[in-house]
Amino acid sequence: MAMIRLENLSKHYKVLNRSEGLSGALKDLFSRDYRIVKAVSDLSLEVNAGEIVGFVGPNGAGKSTTIKMMTGVLKPTSGLLTVNGRIPTKNRAQNMQEIGVVFGQRTQLWWDLPVIESFKILRQIYRVDQSSYNENMNIFEELIDLKALYSTPVRYLSLGQRMLCDIVASFLHNPKVIFLDEPTIGLDISIKSRIREVIKTLNEHKQTTIILTTHDLSDIEALCKRIVIIDKGTTVYDGSIQKVSSMFGAHRTLKIQLPPAEYLALDQLATSVNGHFSQASAITMEQSEEGWIHFTINQDEVHLMDVLNYIGHHYPVHDIKIEEISIDKIVKNIYEGGLA
Ligand SMILES: Nc1ncnc2c1ncn2[C@@H]1O[C@H](COP(=O)(O)OP(=O)(O)OP(=O)(O)O)[C@@H](O)[C@H]1O
């Protein structure tokens, strides 16, 4: 049985077209000038029990709206949605008992209380019986040495420690489904891998279905077999992460900042880079704000270091950053037939 089922699910927001100025604000009080924003359009998806699915898309793709519908916070405009066989908005109390939610940017723990007190409160809220509570606390203890953090108020935890506590806390009431939203955002690589390990172990141990939203593709590579990519409210890819990794795993984004005096030389830079490397199609260039230029480089064909050396040799580079390929770029490539 599918744990989560979406069939032609849509969510449209009605947004007032705002007028400018004070008179505009007054006019808006009586205005009926609305437009419809189709945040989610005819989205169909089935997730099986125990699966971890990476749910990604560019900004504004409709991820949060979909998650809000799955958690029962928002009512769909049309279509069918069930989580564990239930319509999330119909019985919200029961639904909340069966799901867990973790937001990388916020905590569900009590800021001023020692960690253990938050766990005790969650135990009361979700009415977890003493033996499951003890059993889970033992598992968590093994995974993250919780005892060392017991008496620390949440606000004194590092971001990584807090995230680990938030994640295990979301498993405390043995939910069937957990929604993880950017669980490794802002964390360094060593704590990221601990967090992934904890998620993986708990998923295997408890067979919890997990929907993972992240902008970090390596989170998905580490945790998911399946990735669902959405854009403009609908699915553009639903399949194996391996395929996505083999297509884009070698791509890197090289970001270069030139000093203001060089901003005008961008066209020249593009021509010069394309002219120098014979495999020019492996490099795409895009101008960003404040003199930053983004190169997406397929390292199977051109080494990033060669591009960097070449640019450094000819232009006064101010600053550089190297990142994985962005989800936006992957979506762009999909539209251009990249994953067909
Ligand atoms: N309450 C709202 N009222 C009107 N429009 C909304 C509302 N919430 C979201 N939208 C619009 O719906 C679309 C989808 O937004 P949503 O937040 O679901 O995307 P997202 O994929 O989660 O984006 P992000 O990664 O930036 O959080 C966007 O165009 C957004 O502006």
From TrEMBL:
Magnesium is among the record's keywords: no
PROSITE patterns listed in its UniProt record: ABC_TRANSPORTER_2
Keyword Cytoplasm: no
SMART domains, per database record: AAA (SM00382)
A GO term, aspect molecular function: ATP binding
Residue stretches in coiled coil: none
Keywords: ATP-binding, Nucleotide-binding, Transport
InterPro entries found in the cross-reference section: AAA+_ATPase, ABC_transporter-like_ATP-bd, ABC_transporter_ATP-binding, P-loop_NTPase
Protein name: ABC-2 type transport system ATP-binding protein
Natural source organism: Paenibacillus aquistagni
